[in-house]
Amino acid sequence: MISAYPATVAAPVEHELVEKKSRFLTRIEPVSTVAEADAVVAARRKQFWDARHHCVALTVGLTADQQRSNDDGEPSGTAGIPMLEVLRRRELTDLVAVVTRYFGGVKLGAGGLVRAYSTAVSETLDRARLLRRLPATVVTIPVPHTEAGRLHGVLAAWADGHDAEVREVDYGGEHAVFTLVVPPAGLDDLDAVLAAASAGALRAIRGETVVLSRA
After folding, report:
1. Concatenated DSSP letters for the chain?
2. Beta-bridge mates of residue 178
3. Three-state secondary structure along 3-49?
4. pTM of the model as a whole
5. How far, rounded to the nearest angstrom, does the alpha carbon of residue 96 sit from its chain's CA centroid?
6. Phi-psi sector, 120: left (phi>0), alpha (psi -120 to 50), beta
7. For 172, what's the count of Cα atoms within 13 Å in the CB-facing half-sphere?
8. Residues 6 or more apart whose Cβ sits within 8 Å of residue 127
9. What is the pLDDT of residues 127-176, one digit of tens each?
10. What is the pLDDT of residues 72-120, one digit of tens each?
11. 30 within 8 A of 8, measured Cβ to Cβ
């Protein structure tokens, strides 16, 4: 099983870089689809309608399988691709980076543009709060109602120390049913904790794989 997926940003972040009088205004925003990314770009174009360039790099998908870039009038390969390379090197996904440039009257040259656009994205990401994303297993644990209160405390304490979550407790049936989301490394330990807390009477039923996001 994959041990971790590419991370993403927790919230939009903006930053301005000035290079030889040119202003590079960067916004990086979390998105889950290309359509959402396109909407972010459209909003930046509307907000800074008088800017000469709005260069873009985006990557979406659980494993960053969809990637796009756009130089938006800058010399080919000097803006979008360098921006995208920053996202790739940092192993990020589900985000879009838009760098809006106001020309300052001094030409930067191809190398200068590559450095400016990549630096703009790097410095903006340095200010972002990242979310790690981990595969996890949904686990259900049927518990006698008479034991539910005690086991709730045991499971909550265990989850806090193992990057897991107690998602739900259903008291409506013959048994109380706890639903947890547990990273793969914690599954065997959870089984051991349950066995110790119930003299071997309880067991965790493993279900589907989902993704956990962690700061």
Report:
1. --S-EEEEESS-EEEEEEETTEEEEEEEEE-SSHHHHHHHHHHHHHHTTT-SEEEEEEEESTT--EEEEE-TTSSTTSSHHHHHHHHHHTTB-SEEEEEEEE--SS--HHHHHHHHHHHHHHHHHHTSPEEEEEEEEEEEEEE-HHHHHHHHHHHHHHHHTTT-EEEEEE-SSSSEEEEEEE-GGGHHHHHHHHHHHHTT----EEEEEEEEEE-
2. 141, 169
3. CCEEEEECCCEEEEEEECCEEEEEEEEECCCHHHHHHHHHHHHHHCC
4. 0.84
5. 12
6. alpha
7. 2
8. 13, 15
9. 999 999 999 999 999 999 999 999 999 999 999 999 899 999 999 989 99
10. 999 999 999 999 999 999 999 999 999 999 999 999 999 999 999 999 9
11. yes
Q: How many CA atoms lie within 13 A of 199 on its CB side?
A: 1
Which residue(s) pair with 19 in the sheet?
A: 22
Q: Are 99 and 81 in contact (CB under 8 A)?
A: no
The residue count of the chain comes to 215
Residue 141, Ramachandran bin (φ over 0: left; ψ between -120 and 50: alpha; else beta): beta
118: its two tokens = 């990549």
What is the rounded CA–CA span in Å between residue 184 and residue 2? 10
Residue with tokens 């940003």: 9
Pull the structure tokens for residue 20.
């030889």
What does the pLDDT look like over 35-79, one tens digit per residue?
A: 999 999 999 999 999 999 999 999 999 999 999 999 999 999 999
Look up tokens 């993403």; give the residue: 8
